[in-house]
Amino acid sequence: MSVLSLFTEETIFNPLKVRSKKQLLVKLSDLAAVKTGLKSSDIFQALIDREKLGSTALGHGVAIPHLSVKDCPSVSVFLAILDKPISFDAIDGQPIDVVVFLLAPEDKNGLHLRTMSKISRLLRDEDFCLRLRGAGDPAATLAVLFDREEQNKSFKLRA
């Protein structure tokens, strides 16, 4: 399975309108709750607790908030391209506008880490991120992801 196959038009939000880190985390929690059946408030609190350990912003306008959660049914990823960059306590001090939220079952830590590693490597490509930012809607964003997958077969995951 390819890590990029985890994305669907229903898990891509482009553009997403939020004005703060907290508002973004609330929105991601709500979206994840709908897909997973978990409580939004529990996801939000886990995200807040994770961010207290250190910002999940990679720099260059990209963040990958991620969690392993008890009772999570499967690995889920959500991609948001923000309509305007927001402060996210990034190490480079830059605001973020590309966000991938990864939510995984607590008992699948290895899969969680492999998925995060592949997504992180993908999002370090500034040209690719520019294409995501310019996509404009979920369908076009998904097309950018699939085009990237065709170019590079190294996004395969082992169970």
Task: Write a brief caption for the model.
The mean pLDDT is 91. The relative contact order is 0.21. It is globular, with a radius of gyration of 14 Å.
Q: Give me the Rg, rounded.
A: 14 Å
Question: What is the helix content?
Answer: 40-55%
- By DSSP (H or I, 4+ residues per run), the number of helices equals 5
SSE run: EHHEEEEEHHH
Total beta strand runs: 6
Shape, per Cα inertia axes: globular
Q: Regarding CATH, which class?
A: Alpha Beta
| Portion in beta strands | 15-25%
Describe the 3D structure.
The chain is built from 5 helices and 6 strands; from the N terminus they run E-H-H-E-E-E-E-E-H-H-H. Strands 1, 2, 3, 4, 5 and 6 form a 6-stranded mixed beta sheet that branches. Strand 2 and strand 3 (62-63) form a beta hairpin. Helix 1 (21-36) crosses helix 2. It has one domain (3-155): Mannitol-specific EII, Chain A (3-Layer(aba) Sandwich). With 159 residues, the chain is an alpha/beta fold. Helix content is 43%, strand content 22%. The termini are close together. The model has no long low-confidence stretch (mean pLDDT 91). It is globular and about 35 Å long.
